[in-house]
Design a protein that fits this description.
Layout: E1 4-9, E2 15-17, H1 24-33, E3 40-44, H2 50-62, E4 65-69, E5 74-78, H3 89-94, H4 102-109, E6 111-115, H5 128-136, E7 140-144, E8 147-151, E9 159-161, H6 167-177, E10 183-187, H7 193-205, E11 208-211, E12 216-220, E13 229-231, H8 236-249, E14 252-255, H9 264-272, E15 276-280, E16 284-288, E17 298-299, H10 311-319, E18 324-328, H11 339-344, E19 348-352, E20 356-360, E21 365-366, E22 369-371, H12 375-386, E23 388-389, E24 391-395, H13 397-403, H14 407-413, E25 418-422
Helix pairs in contact: 1-2, 1-7, 4-6, 5-6, 6-7, 8-10, 8-12, 10-12, 12-13
The chain binds uridine-diphosphate-N-acetylglucosamine.
């Protein structure tokens, strides 16, 4: 898609206060969870993103009536008429997160017909943990080329032990289990803030879920769930992007509605660089950048580790800090696709194998024409443009639109020069 690019110019220190939008990665599974109810629910703080629009279309295809007021961030969803359990292949391909309708459909209809969501640039992204546990729950699974069909006479409460704390598998199994009679457990569950947000709305609907000991969810099945009004959590990944933008440009910002508990290790890394990062009830998270940031090494891990989605962004901070460092990616197998473009911009970094990059900080990058290959890479390249001499043109704009609600406007409000340019 080279008919549009994001033009970024070298920035002065970014300064000011902005509000962080609702979290896409929480909103998508929460929208899917409404399939478990019959009635009118209201979701607030929903970000206006193409991934959200795709999920709206998917739910409409299943029979939901939806009124979307994107300007106000409100979705009103009536699930009374949801009467289909088949999802078309083109909708499954639009957003990977569509896989989280599997659990709710199985719970509501004991059936689900859909297509594999497929891999993407950052990795193969299989769904074997989801399917293995649905089978354990009693579903019979048939697969024909890319189509997959699940059917169950009865769903049975079980102790589900995950091979890895997969966010998607935890959300899917949880949503299937809440209406299953008896007591289910999910052991080695993901406990990302976005999973907790899903647990919160399910509890508000009437589900009985508790966190038993670290990373074990206990679910006592209930007969029905009620429709609800719910406000989606703020986006820790957008907050991370804004903090890094301020840090690398030598700025000073405050994010009054950002949640520090969701990103403690990340904030600690910014402090280790020398930045003054504070958490305050009124001001939220504030960052005042230091003059000569020292570099840091990190590795991504399931929560409370550093989110894999922050990895490409943190590498920009490493690229322009003083010293040598490492970035280790443990969640996905192909998540350094932004590195060749950063090298084109003058970054000294090298990928060793599939999970490790080594970085030597430089004073400044230089502008170039670069291509984003996924949502988070698009943000990393825009951040790089803020500390690059001259102009940076970031192609792959659809990735940005899938993941960031008006982040360009927020960066502009802080003093950045960033614009969308149409190519004729
Ligand atoms: C992941 C991130 C999540 C992020 C999201 C969007 C983690 C633990 N998860 O969630 O924070 O918001 O991407 O970028 O950081 N896997 C399997 N089989 C499965 C499911 C997963 O092998 O059935 C593997 C994946 O290939 C991956 C790892 O488990 O290597 C984590 O995957 P998972 O947490 O499920 O990914 P997402 O739910 O997409």
């Amino acid at each position: 898609m080279r008919n549009e690019y994001i033009l970024v110019k070298k920035s002065k220190p970014l300064t000011g206060q902005v509000l962080v939008s609702g979290a896409k990665n929480a909103a998508l599974p929460i929208m899917a969870s409404l399939i478990l109810t019959s009635g009118i629910s209201v979701l607030k703080n929903v970000p206006h993103l193409t991934d959200i629009e795709s999920m709206v279309i998917l739910l409409q295809e299943l029979g939901a009536l939806i009124h979307a007021d994107y300007a106000a961030g409100i979705l009103t969803v009536d699930t009374t008429m949801v009467n289909r359990w088949q999802v078309s292949e083109h909708l499954m391909k639009k957003t990977r997160a569509s896989i989280v309708v599997l659990g709710p459909l199985l719970a509501r209809f004991h059936r689900a017909d859909l297509a594999f969501p497929g891999g993407d640039a950052i990795g193969a992204r299989p769904i074997d943990y989801h399917l293995k546990n649905f089978k354990k729950m009693g579903a019979v699974i048939t697969q024909e080329s890319n189509l997959i069909s699940l059917q169950a006479e009865h769903l049975v409460a079980q102790r589900f032990v995950l091979d890895y704390p997969s966010v998607g598998a935890t959300q899917n199994i949880l949503m299937a289990a809440v209406l299953v009679p008896g007591v289910s457990y999910i052991v080695n569950a993901a406990v990302e803030p976005e999973v907790i947000d899903l647990i919160n709305i399910l509890q508000k609907m009437g589900a009985e879920i508790s966190i038993e000991k670290s990373a074990t969810l206990k679910i006592v099945g209930v007969k029905t769930l009620q429709s609800v009004e719910y406000t989606i959590m703020t986006d820790r990944l957008e907050a991370g992007a804004l903090l890094i933008a301020a840090a690398i440009t030598g700025g000073e910002i405050s994010l009054p509605n950002a949640c520090a508990d969701d990103m403690e290790l990340f904030l600690m890394k910014l402090q280790e660089m020398g930045h003054d990062v504070r958490v305050d009830e009124q001001l939220g998270i504030t960052l005042k950048a230091c003059k000569n940031p020292q570099t840091f090494s990190f590795k991504t891990a399931p929560y409370p580790g550093i989110a894999t989605d922050l990895q490409p962004l943190m590498m920009i901070a490493q690229a322009v800090a003083h010293g040598n460092s490492e970035a280790i990616e443990t969640v996905f197998e192909n998540r350094f696709l932004h590195v060749p473009y950063l090298q084109m911009m003058g970054a000294h970094m090298q990928v060793l194998g599939s999970h490790k990059a080594v970085i030597t900080g430089v004073k400044l990058l230089h502008g170039a024409e670069v291509e984003a290959t996924d949502i988070r890479a698009s943000c990393a390249l825009v951040l790089a443009g803020l500390v690059a001499e001259g102009e940076t043109k970031v192609y792959g704009v659809p990735h940005w639109r899938r993941g960031y609600e008006s982040l360009d406007e927020k960066l502009r409000a802080l003093g950045a020069e960033i614009d969308f340019v149409q190519v004729r």
